[in-house]
Write a structure and sequence with these properties.
The chain has two domains: about 45 residues, no CATH class; about 100 residues, OB fold (Dihydrolipoamide Acetyltransferase, E2P) (Beta Barrel). Helices cover about 10% and strands about 30% of the residues. It has one helix and ten strands. The longest helix is centred in the first third of the chain and has 20 residues. The radius of gyration is 26 Å and the shape is rod-shaped. It comes from Sulfitobacter noctilucicola. This protein is a component of the acetyl coenzyme A carboxylase complex; first, biotin carboxylase catalyzes the carboxylation of the carrier protein and then the transcarboxylase transfers the carboxyl group to form malonyl-CoA.
Length: about 170
C-alpha cells in the first residue's frame, strides 16, 4: 500500500470511530476491498459505560447467636398476595447492586436474619458479593422481618427486593 492509501485508511477508521460515538454504538465492523488480494477489515468497538454503585461502608456486627437460632426460611411470593411488586412495598429493602446473596458471614455460621426476627437500624441483614467484595446490607430502619425474598447463594439484580421489614 502506498502512503496515500494508508492516510486514507486512517481517516476512514477515524470516521468510523466518530460514527460509533455519535450514534452511541458499542461496535462497528467494516470490510473494504481495494483489489482482488488487497482489503481492509476494520472493527471498532468500545465498552459501554458501567454504572458503579458505592456499597454501604457500614459494617455492623452480626446479631447475637441466641437471637438467631431458627434456620433461614425464604418465603417466596404467593399468588394469593396479589400481583403487587414486592420492591414497591414500603418496608422493602432492595439490592443496591448486582451480585450473589449470602445469608451468613461465613459458611456454617448462623444466618444474620430469620423471618420474625427483630432488627435495629444498621444491623446487617445479609451480604451481597459483587466482584469478590463482600457488601454488608444494613437495615434501613428498625422493625420485624416479615419476608425474606432471596436464599443463600441466589444471584440478585440491582433493585431486586431482598427483605421486607415491617
Amino acid at each position: 500500500m502506498t502512503k496515500n492509501t494508508h492516510d486514507a485508511d486512517v481517516a476512514f477508521i477515524r470516521a468510523l470511530a466518530e460514527l460509533l460515538n455519535e450514534n452511541d454504538l458499542t461496535e462497528l465492523q467494516v470490510k473494504r476491498d481495494y483489489a482482488e488480494d488487497d482489503s481492509l477489515n476494520v472493527r471498532v468497538s468500545r465498552k459501554p459505560p458501567q454504572q458503579v454503585m458505592a456499597a454501604p461502608a457500614q459494617m455492623a456486627a452480626p446479631a447475637a447467636p441466641a437471637a438467631i437460632a431458627a434456620p433461614v426460611a425464604a418465603t417466596p411470593a404467593s399468588a394469593s398476595e396479589g400481583a403487587a411488586d414486592p420492591a414497591s412495598h414500603p418496608g422493602a429493602v432492595t439490592s443496591p447492586m448486582v451480585g450473589t446473596v449470602y445469608m451468613q458471614g461465613e459458611p456454617g455460621a448462623p444466618a444474620f436474619i430469620t423471618v420474625g426476627a427483630t432488627v435495629a437500624e444498621g444491623d446487617t441483614l445479609l451480604i451481597v458479593e459483587a466482584m469478590k467484595t463482600m457488601n454488608h446490607i444494613p437495615a434501613p430502619r428498625a422493625g420485624k422481618i416479615a419476608r425474606i425474598m432471596v436464599g443463600d447463594g441466589d444471584a440478585v439484580e440491582f433493585g431486586a427486593p431482598l427483605v421486607i421489614i415491617e
